[in-house]
From TrEMBL:
One Gene Ontology MF term: catalytic activity
Signal peptide: none
Superkingdom of the organism of origin: Bacteria
Protein name: Endonuclease/exonuclease/phosphatase domain-containing protein
Pfam families, sorted: Exo_endo_phos
GO cellular component labels: membrane
Endonuclease/exonuclease/phosphatase domain: residues covered: 9-249
PANTHER family associated with the record: CALCOFLUOR WHITE HYPERSENSITIVE PROTEIN PRECURSOR, PGAP2-INTERACTING PROTEIN
UniProt GO BP: GPI anchor biosynthetic process
Length: 260
């Protein structure tokens, strides 16, 4: 890889739960599968969602066990992790975001993304969604600063609603993109937008393109949920979507060089 060129991995790791075609929701956690998948890509930057699993009553394990294991498995990377704000309403699914980088991370950011009080049914109980999260950091590659953002938005389509109606989380992410428009910036994540063209247009208006919008990135439904967005200071030279049995999400990778 040429100096100044780097590879990024976007991966919703579903807290280490592998995919099972017959029993996808009850497969036992196998974090080693996640580790093997990440290692196989040898990316310079790794962006992860659903690093941990929420404990009963919305509890958050401290220290976060999966993140702790990943740090030990990848000692050549600097890293940053955050849970969202604790909430007893949290359901027992994936939670927590992480950034791993072969170059040091600084200027960490952690931004709460409030969720609207949209009611939904969960096994006969009325629930409202918990808040989401965006994290960020700055690194330097080939002497050039690079701003990194990672997020995981609320899946409104699972609540019989839409983020096109409830735009608040997307707007908060857009604000962060606009604030970093004058430097090389990447945004990755599981955006949970089923009709992804509206998301792509919104961020294009802010000066950011996605590396791909045609290949499905989720096993459960034919949606493009995962993206790597970049601004005019960066130029993608390759990208790939790769199905993996390590999660219900596929991996998305891209290689970049600095423009100009």
């Amino acid at each position: 890889m040429n100096p100044g060129t780097f590879k990024i991995l976007q991966f919703n790791m579903q807290y280490g739960q592998p995919w099972d075609d017959i029993y996808p929701d009850t497969a036992p956690i196998r974090l080693q599968n996640t580790i093997d998948e990440i290692r196989a890509h040898d990316a310079d930057i790794v962006m992860l969602q659903e690093v941990e699993q929420t404990l009963p009553g919305g509890s958050q394990a401290q220290p976060p066990p999966h993140y702790t294991r990943l740090r030990a498995e990848f000692p050549g990377y600097d890293s940053y992790f955050s849970y969202p704000r604790p909430d007893s309403r949290e359901l027992p699914f994936g939670i927590g975001l992480a950034i791993f980088s072969k170059t040091p991370l600084r200027e960490h950011v952690c931004l709460n993304l409030p969720s609207p009080p949209v009611e939904f049914d969960f096994f006969g109980e009325k629930k409202t969604p918990t808040d989401r999260l965006l994290i960020g950091a700055t690194t330097v590659i080939g002497g050039r600063p690079l701003r990194l953002f990672n997020t995981h938005l609320l899946a409104f389509f699972m609540l019989n609603s839409s983020s096109e109606v409830h735009l608040e989380q997307r707007k908060l992410v857009e604000d962060q993109l606009r604030s970093s428009a004058e430097m090389p910036t990447l945004l990755t994540g599981d955006f949970n937008v089923s009709k992804h063209q509206s998301l792509i247009q919104q961020f294009a208006d802010a000066g950011y393109l996605t590396v791909q919008s045609t290949q499905i990135t989720w096993r459960r439904r034919p949606f493009v949920l995962d993206h790597i967005f970049y601004n005019r200071w960066l130029q993608p030279t390759a990208w790939a979507v790769k199905p993996t049995p390590a999660s219900d999400h596929h991996t998305l990778t891209a290689e970049f060089q600095f423009a100009g």
